[in-house]
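Our example pasted here:


***
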Amino acid sequence: MIIGLIKRKEYKVLYLFISHQKDYLETLNRCIKNYKDFLVVVGGEKSNYISDNTLYLNVDDNYEGLPQKVLESLKYIAQDENFSKYTHICKLDSDMKILKKFSSRILAKEKYFGKVQYVDGKRDWGKQKFTKNSKFSKENYSGPFVPWCLGGYGYVVSIDAVKQILHTQVDYDEEPYEDLLISKLLVAKNVAPYNFKNLNNYIYSSTHNL
């Protein structure tokens, strides 16, 4: 009798570098030189499309557009069959580095992980980063906090988890922080963040050291 072999699921990460018009080319050239399995994301376009390892989005390219830029990036990838070989997305700032691959063990276990903050953040954080026309250059964030993976350190979210939030409505006028927004949406679907203690052995930011 021939016993069929059970194929082990393969886990694969797509690295998503979130850039803007001013640092896009520098980010793209660095990524092409050093990495595979990546996309650079940039806003300020008239439509959403992919070309030359770049995801161009019709979103505000300023800091206040970051929540929509990140969420729309995740949604685009989760719905595009060209990315069906990937099981997870790693969101990175444009200046971050990939040091080594995440193990199948952690990818199989967790849907959403990074450096987690469990206490409320500062409601006026980053005020100077918003343009003067943004309400958040003058007003503090007034919404709820949940435990969330801090965006400056990078974080990983599974495609399956993203698919659970594809049709969630978001009022971006009330959401200044992309990392907190993503967590709020996921937590509402019972996907809690996991605090991955060795994160900077895998992805690294020179401005956010663990």
User: Anything to note?
Assistant: Residues 13-204 form a domain with the Spore Coat Polysaccharide Biosynthesis Protein SpsA; Chain A fold (CATH 3.90.550). The two ends are 54 Å apart (CA to CA). Residues 66-79 form the longest helix (14 residues).
